[in-house]
Amino acid sequence: MAGKTKPILEIDLGDNGGKLSFRTLGEIEAWVQEETSIWGWLATAAQQDGNIATIVSRQVSPFQAIQQTIAQARAHIETEQFPAHLEAVKQQIVTHYGGAPVVSLLASTPRALFAFELKETDPILAAYVLGYFISVPVVQNVHRSLEGALEALMFEKGYRKSLTAEKRALNKLREEWQTELTDYKTKLDDLKTDYDTKKKEIEDLHAKQGTDFDQALLDGEEELQKVTEAYEQKMALQAPVKYWKDKKTTHHKLARNFSIASGVWLAVSGGVLIATIYAVLNDLEAGKNPALWQSLSLAASAFVVVWIARILVKITLSHLHLKEDASERVTMAETYLSLLRHEGGPEKGDLELILTTLFRPNSDGLVKDDGMPPTVMEWMTRNRG
After folding, report:
1. Cβ contacts of residue 82 below 8 Å, gap of 6+?
2. Which of 57, 96, 265, 381 could form a disulfide with 62 if both were Cys (CB 3.0 to 4.6 A apart)?
3. CA 52 to mean position of chain CA atoms
4. Can you give the three-state secondary structure of 284-320, one letter per residue?
């Protein structure tokens, strides 16, 4: 809430009204209009007594000139000439109200209030009293003019009604100051309320920022702890992970090589076996069977081809299994490290499962059958069973 606006015009009229202060040009216009309205009763009195016209001209006519000067100032309110026009307004007011003798009487002065009091019962007498106060000469041979001068003189000497008028003037001034004081108190209370509200908002904001900062610091420490633990775990598992990655690469290469070898073996040995069978059968005469040794040789050759091919395939499958096992262990280790960095981390049961899987005994990946044909004893044992 801002304070009062700095006055644009201040005038000291001394005994004829004291200090006047105006914040805006509109306040000056309002003051002139109020003064004009207050002295409006003089025009009615002048209609009843023509000698009062001089008093009306002295008291009321300056208002019109002041209003014209105010209008000129308003027309230049946004220009550099505005201060000069304000000064012209001030000079006109000082000329009419602050001179000696007084040219015009301000409505708030004790002398004006005395004239207002007489106006309630005798407007003509009140007008002549005003004429004396503003130095209008007494009209010769007009006893009301003389009577007014005597009433005014007795008031100034303190013989009549001066106490009442002074009291009324002081009461009016007290009321004005009371209004100003109440206005200041209201604004002061509003300022205090705004101050208390802003103070409470700042305290709440400070407390919230402190809480948020503490929470952010705690979260950062927790996150740093998790990163540290994850780093330590990663460094601890770095060698096993590298080992199983290398194993995965090795078994991949061996599986590929043995699969190629299996294909080559089947193609070459199969081709040779087929060519041999064709040669044996092609040399037989019509209606004859191959010799016993030929049949046994071909059967043995076919068995060897199939047996070696079976061993190669088993080795290929063994390396594929070992490759998948190594890949699974690497995946489990990296998953474990990733879970360590997230909120909560792995549960105790999950951790046991991961570690059990990660550090389980390694297998050779081979099918338990060794690929050799069964011996006679094994064959007899199986058949008996």
Report:
1. 73, 76
2. 96
3. 71
4. CCCCCCCCHHHHHHHHHHHHHHHHHHHHHHHHHHHHH
Residue 54 main-chain phi, psi, to 5 deg: -65, -40
Distance separating alpha carbons of residues 342 and 349, to the nearest angstrom: 17
What Rg, from alpha-carbon coordinates, does the chain have? 61
Going by C-beta distance under 8 Å and a sequence separation of 6 or more, which residues neighbour residue 59? 39, 42, 104, 105, 130, 134
- Joined together, the tokens standing for residue 277 give 């069978």
Measured N-to-C along each axis, helices 53-75 and 123-133 cross at an angle, to the nearest 10 degrees, of: 70
Q: What is the DSSP letter of 80?
A: T
* H helix count then E strand count, the chain: 11, 2
Alpha-carbon distance 88 to 73, whole Å? Answer: 9
Residue-range domain boundaries for the chain: 9-160, 236-384
Give which of 29, 36, 98 is closest to 62, Cα–Cα: 36
- Specify which residues 253 forms β-bridges with: none
CB 333 within 8 A of CB 237: yes
Cα–Cα distance, 311 to 303 (Å, whole number): 12
Round the average pLDDT of the chain to a whole number and report it.
79
For Cα atoms 315, 317, 320, give the angle at the middle one, nearest 5 degrees. Answer: 110
Residue corresponding to tokens 């089947």: 266
Q: What's the CA gap between 332 and 249, in Å, rounded?
A: 17
Stretches in the chain below the pLDDT threshold 50: 1-2, 370-372, 375-377, 379, 385
Q: Rounded to whole angstroms, how far apart are CA atoms 2 and 23?
A: 14
pLDDT tens readout for residues 105-135: 888 888 888 888 888 889 999 999 988 888 8
User: Do the Cβ atoms of 128 and 48 come closer than 8 Å?
Assistant: no
Is the CB of residue 116 less than 8 Å from the CB of residue 42? no
Tens-digit pLDDT profile for residues 189-210: 888 888 988 888 898 888 888 8
- 51: which DSSP letter? G
Q: 129, 115 in Cβ contact below 8 A?
A: yes
